[in-house]
Amino acid sequence: MDMRASRGGAARGVAVAAALAACLAFVSGCTALRDAGKGVARGVSDAGRSVGEVFSGGRPGGLRLPVAVFGLEEPASAGAAEFAALLRRQLAEQLGARCGGLLVDRDFAQLLGTPPRLASGAVDGHALALLARGRGVNNVVVGSPLEPRITEEKTGFWFWKGSRVRVSLGLRLEVFDAETGGKSLDERFWEEAVLELETEYPGAEIPLEAIPAAVTATLRERLLAQAGRGACRHLAETPWRGFVVAAQGRELTVSAGRGVGLREGMRLEVFAPGRPLANRDGQRFLLPGARLGEARLRDVGEARSVAVLDEAAAVEAGATVRLKP
């Protein structure tokens, strides 16, 4: 079977990225890319292009950004459930290992199962943000497969007529921000292969099950590599935010601690929760509220901390905190 891979359709994708994506997600080394025009193999060095080297994710105070990953099973198609599990597991592993400055919460997705939904079926970013805040998660990465595209193409002429199949698999990557409940990233990635099938489907739609498992597995691995690079690139520029889960007098309990790099004596700026807004699709968003004052971290645990306000202020659960510059 002759399989020729081409680059994905993401806006940021380039030919070299597709060549490198032939390796397992984020694994450095050398990838062989078949030249469709000449039928020869050429090597492309992956040195210095691993996600961990490119996306260091440095943040003020050396803080790490807590994230969680969900893999959705839609649309319902062959291998969708397996791909969703692979996406959640492998993308979470790679984000933690290769994206500098991230702290991956591996339990959040398993405890929640699937993200909350609106009546339309879309992910409810506001409800997801409120759940994430309680665990100190700043961003939630949601990946879902797109409807496969499988088309038959005629080749040759006269006695050399034939056909080949072009198979395209896609992945949608969404990143939800726990501070606002909105989407900070919504990007689609595509990978495709051209191959010949032994079975013909004249005038009929070719099912995904007809594509060899090795082909779909390779395309999915490449999609995960693309999505991982896109997520790392985006999250590397995202600042850390903390969330107040309890307030008593001047003492504030924040859902973050040593795990993200907080230390006693650090100073925080405190902001009111703000009021929610809704759009015509039913999505709700939280606008950052007014600055209420400053606080100093007094007691820092692994995942919870207590900060003391410099001056008394009307701070309540749901407020956000930022590291003071």
Give structural notes.
By secondary structure, the chain is an alpha+beta fold. It has six helices and 17 strands. It has two domains: 4-235, no CATH class; 242-323, Thrombin, subunit H (Beta Barrel). Helix content is 21%, strand content 33%. Strands 1, 4, 5, 6, 7, 8 and 9 form a seven-stranded mixed sheet that branches. A six-stranded antiparallel beta barrel has the order 10-11-16-15-12-17. Strands 2-3 form a two-stranded antiparallel sheet. Helix 3 crosses helix 6. The longest helix has 23 residues, at 213-235. It is elongated.
Question: Which key features would you list for this structure?
Answer:
alpha+beta, 7-stranded mixed β-sheet, 6-stranded antiparallel beta barrel, elongated, 325 residues, 6 helices, 21% helix, 2 domains, disordered N terminus, single chain, Thrombin, subunit H
